Amino acid sequence: MAAADPSLPPQIAAQLNYLLSHSPLPFKVDQIWSGCKNGRFSDRFSLLVPFCLDFVKWDVIYNALFPAAAPDFVFAPDDDGFRPLGGGGKGGGAPAENSSSSLCDWNCRDPARLLAVVHELRDSYAQYQKKRVEELDDARLKFEISTILSREGIEVCVVSPPDRPAEVKFAVPLLDLDFDKLVREYPWKHQQKIFLQVVYPVSRSYSSIPSAPRIKLVSTSDLKALFSIEDVKLPPWLDGMCMAEYLPTVEDNLKVQVVEAVASIGQRRRFIEALSPLFGRPLEADPVFCRKATVLAISGVFTFLIHFSIPIQFPKQQPILTLQSSQHFNSQGTPILSPPINDYPWSPRWDPAKMVERIFDFLVDECLNFKKYCNDAIPQQQ
């Protein structure tokens, strides 16, 4: 692997930084290196381009000696038919003047130019993959495409794993919900989405009752603070069902659970507010999703912190408590913590004041056990 000083010339660095900070898509840089063995600057990098709920790797090749020149792009070996700049080739995408006008009209002083080029190339790549799927000799896939690809935002690609037959993967955005309005307090960096991933094996034979595809839900990463996509149980895929029939059921189910997740924020907030009468005002609390809170507690001369970790499924699931001593430290100088505690009395039907009261009563005795735990832990370190 070629490796060199990771610094890029200022003009190239400005374009890459603009791409990473301003794109609505989560692009990543895999590695940066120099095309010259003893070069002062690096001038090329591998860009991970988000597509169809995965990433494709493109190498972006500049010339550090001529940083004002437009970069070249090297695509993955599996995409040798992808020719977005013209030059023929099967499924190559649109001609250069249409698909990559920002590259043809390159301006090295415009930090947004690389972003524009990469988005144009990605749009061409989406069309290239769609054409590849349409050309497959698979009746079921042809039917699915004819009934579903008119839906806005769908991406599709051919996947050729080395150890099994080719597959076609669909990434279908679900629910036209504005999460900025649902959770106004949170500064979402990107537009939040939930997708259904559907993977079909490529087959030339058409069964009257084809088997169900592999399906799973995928969400953008920030959304996990609000909604646990892993806990959603998908409805069964019935025999003979197609994607257009399946999606409405999934979306109806999801909409109910998203509404419940947003409502759960209010329930967690009321629980945190109920801590004050017995524990005092929290030292820290999560003001948006209300997933965490910390209070200061005193038992005689023993002072400790109580950390509340409040699950998304609250109040069905109770908060996890962790006690932290302010007077006992381990050999690394770190405050001693208790193991996670969730074996205290709890009922999701109690009001927040009752929940907090029962936790307080439980901790009156538990803090004595924790103090002994701290005292016992210190001699073992000496």
Short description:
By secondary structure, this protein is α+β, with helices and mostly antiparallel strands. It has helices at 10-22, 96-99, 101-104, 113-134, 139-148, 179-182, 243-273, 276-279, 352-381; strands at 28-33, 44-51, 54-61, 72-74, 155-159, 167-174, 194-201, 214-219, 284-285, 292-299, 302-309, 320-329, 335-337.
Protein architecture, described:
By secondary structure, the chain is an alpha+beta fold. The protein has three domains: 133 residues; 135 residues; 108 residues. It is 32% helix and 22% strand. A five-stranded antiparallel sheet has the order 9-10-11-12-13, with helices on one face. It has a four-stranded antiparallel sheet with strand order 1-2-3-4, with no helix packed on it. It has a four-stranded antiparallel sheet with strand order 5-6-7-8. A hairpin with a 7-residue loop joins strand 5 and strand 6. It starts with 9 loop residues before the first helix and ends with a helix.
Properties at a glance:
382 residues; alpha+beta; 3 domains; four-stranded antiparallel β-sheet; 13 strands; 32% helix; DNA damage; cytoplasm; ubl conjugation pathway; mitosis; nucleus
Largest sheet: 5 strands, antiparallel
* Count of helical regions: 9
Number of strands: 13
Give me the strand/helix succession.
HEEEEHHHHEEHEEHHEEEEEH
Mass-distribution shape:
globular
Strand proportion, as a percent range, falls in 15-25%
- State the secondary-structure class: alpha+beta
Order of strands in the sheet with the most strands?
A: 9-10-11-12-13
What do the pLDDT scores average to? 85
Number of domains: 3
* Quaternary form: single chain
Helix content: 25-40%
For the record, give the distance between the C-alpha atoms at the N and C termini, rounded to a whole number: 48 Å
